[in-house]
């Protein structure tokens, strides 16, 4: 009788909690011209969606209050390696509470620019890693996250939701060193979605942007910005079988040399579901950094075997102009980092498969 009662109590307790294991695997054969003095064919990882595995869970605490956690780490399907050997869960490592008041989340996570505006960019909407902007300085791709962060997200009221985020620098005697702040708002109503966001990161390392900075003579992989300030906005609209998106970002780079150049990026995209299981994506992107500019054009086709499995063919072409001497497409470098072409033009084509679970 005691064992039966314990079993019932245990079953009741577990019924109040849930844990989900999820992930994404993506691999394709890519051809890249004008790279390292020639062309290259290779197996690419995470082109349509980033390779990742995660754990997400909730516990019902009663009174509409829930405890939440998320652990998510990235990896490379083509090699089994990881983007950051020092962080097991490099994409998300959070715990928090949610309820009628909204949600409070603590830990390691991307900023509000990625969460709100990044999902309206060409890289996300047209499912092509190569379409994120040179160096990913605006963080529209999840390659840089806040450590030691606290985020508050409001409940959704009339389609509106807002979010504030603060990352502690945790440097004794200098509260601004390494401090990160971010904020934004999003609106959704039927076929319309819009978002604005802001982030300011102090003492951020160049990271993926190192190769890009070298190509324009502003820095290198060891560069640490005094601050990196991003303003971003985006909009999406679905009209029947056509989905449209646009995004704009402006990034102010406060360099250790005292220079303060600005990178400006514009995305325009369209996706046409011309058949039940088939979609064609069209995209155009413009990036400017002072007198340099890069125009990126893209075309892709996605066939859905199911909601979890897709086959795709993609092509992206970038042309440098103005003071820019080289194409600098995000993703053409090693392990998906920014690469520098051997000239002003570069073409990337990929045929691959994506599966989520």
TrEMBL record:
Tree of life domain: Bacteria
Sorted UniProt keywords: Cell outer membrane, Ion transport, Membrane, Porin, Signal, Transmembrane, Transmembrane beta strand, Transport
Localisation: Cell outer membrane
Signal peptide stretch: 1-15
InterPro entries named in the record: Gram-neg_bact_OMP, Gram_neg_porin_domain, Porin_dom_sf, Porin_Gram-ve, Porin_Neis
GO cellular component, one term: cell outer membrane
UniProt cross-references to Gene3D superfamilies, sorted A to Z: Porin
Subunit-level organization: Homotrimer.
Protein name: Porin
Organism of provenance: Herbaspirillum robiniae
